[in-house]
Known about the structure:
Elements: H1 2-35, H2 42-53, H3 56-69, H4 77-107, H5 112-115, H6 123-201, H7 205-224, E1 230-232, H8 233-251, E2 255-261, E3 269-271, H9 276-285, E4 294-303, E5 306-313, H10 331-341, E6 347-352, E7 357-364, H11 369-372
Parallel strand pairs: 2-4
Antiparallel strand pairs: 1-3, 4-5, 5-7, 6-7
Helix pairs in contact: 1-2, 1-3, 2-4, 3-4, 3-6, 4-6, 6-7, 6-8, 6-10, 7-8
Amino acid sequence: MLSAMQSGRRFALLAAALTIASAIMAAQLYAGYRLRGLKIAFAGAFALELTIWQGWAVAGPLVWKLEARWPLDAPNRRASLLRHAVAAVAVAVMVLAIALALYHALIRLPIAATWLPGFDRSLSATIVYYGMLYFHVELLIYAGIVAAAYAVRTNTLLRAREREALRLQTELTGAKLTALRMQLQPHFLFNTLHTIGSLILQGQHNRAVQLLAELGELLRATLAHRDTDLARFQDEIASLRRYLRIEEARFGDRLRIEWDIDPAAEHAMVPAFIMQPLVENAFRHGIAHRTDDSLLRISAAAQDGAVRVTIYNDGPPLPDAFSIDNGRGYGLKNVLDRLRTRSPAGQLELANGVSGVRATLVLPRWGDDANARH
Length: 374
């Protein structure tokens, strides 16, 4: 049903285009006859041109289908060209036959004596006239339709391939993001289990049970986001707070944690567990190397369509030649790869402060805040 409607619409558009072409040619024919002093009505000139051009309303769709049947880019291109050469002659003869039939029907109408005075009614003479004047034109029209059909078909195929390539790229990106995220989960799991094991060895069984409960909540959050790489920022902060309660069990009173979270950033969608490796890095390379009181400060603000997160620790400074790409660990590289894979890409920067080290995340708003609230 839909295909028939589309075919009908195309036929109507083609007929309209041919009618416009007939009107233009009729104006030229009318002016030429008038300049030579021959009396011809514009209506007659228009009717005459219609008989010549409207045959392509039938032949045009046929030629379009022939290009699809014998594509110019087929492996055996020579055979396709040969078929089109034969078909071009046949179609040209068919169109001229339609034109001749319509012309002789028109010239025998009573109104033709007024519209087209003195026009030849001889069949043999008009066959020779039409053949000499229009046969090569019909061949050119056939070639033009084949070229247009080829261009449209190849453009359609190109767009389809582009859409398929984009779909595959999206799937590949999603798979890569999932793989990167899955690399992080064992990392924090092993650290957490190590902390719980240490508490058990120290006889702090109640505290170990509490931390196991926190770990269970972390794992539940991980499973909740297994089908997507994005999570609400406020949920990420909640998971990070659970993780830090586990770390507080290791460091006790000598660890101070400060929070400064902008409420405007809470509903932004950010990559799941994107901050935790940075916090782990702050503990492993910064806070763990201090013997006195330590500070971990986590702040976040909504700025210029993005969420800017800063994680500061007052541990030892970074080496002068430090580079995330050249580092031996995979935690920071993993975060950087996840940010680079997204579009638009996020940013990660590690730098020394007056004292301590500051990690800065710039997370564009990839998700819909409104949907995040539901």
